[in-house]
Design brief:
By secondary structure, the chain is mainly α. Among the domains are: 57 residues; 50 residues. The chain contains four helices and no strands. The longest helix has 69 residues.
């Protein structure tokens, strides 16, 4: 049988582990919120670059058609048309590859951001009404300040509303 002193030591050690977990969770929560703020800006930059590349691709495709038509009707020589078309195709290929890469990365990162948001949302299930309201207000504030995008804001608020309804239906505290 374990002595009272040894048992007290184990209790203290376990309590310290729980405190460390609380601290890590708090750090994680704060890091996710900072990442969301950074994500909004990065996402906007990537979307802007995607739009630029799409515009360049559209322009090059139009220009390519124009050059081909002009070459057919004799407004420009075949050699010049060939040179211009080759340059346009090279630009198209490079731009299309970059565009696909950016779209892929954007999609991958959006999935990861949502994954971290779902992890934080699980915390709302167990938080008390006051904490729930405080966190909802923080999300509202980030949205109003433009630090998170409308799409993410709507997803988070929709999920929070669903969680609030489920808590109420299950007989939990009201989160209002």
């Amino acid at each position: 049988m374990m002595s009272v002193s040894a048992l007290a030591d184990r209790i203290r050690e376990f309590s310290e582990r729980l405190n460390a977990l609380d601290s890590m969770w708090s750090d994680y929560h704060a890091s996710v919120m900072r990442a969301l703020e950074l994500w909004h800006d990065l996402r906007r930059e990537v979307q802007s670059r995607i739009a630029e590349l799409q515009g360049l691709i559209d322009y090059c495709q139009d220009r390519l058609r124009d050059v081909q038509v002009k070459a057919k009707i004799g407004l420009i020589g075949e050699e010049e048309a060939s040179r211009i078309c080759e340059e346009l195709r090279r630009t198209l290929d490079e731009s299309a590859a970059t565009l696909e890469s950016l779209r892929s990365e954007l999609s991958r990162l959006e999935g990861r951001v949502e994954e971290h948001m779902r992890r934080l949302m699980a915390e709302f299930l167990i938080s008390d009404a006051e904490e729930f309201a405080r966190r909802a207000a923080r999300i509202e504030e980030l949205y109003r300040e433009g630090r998170i995008g409308e799409g993410l804001y709507r997803k988070v608020m929709s999920l929070m509303s669903l969680l609030r309804s489920e808590r109420s239906a299950a007989g939990g505290e009201s989160a209002s």
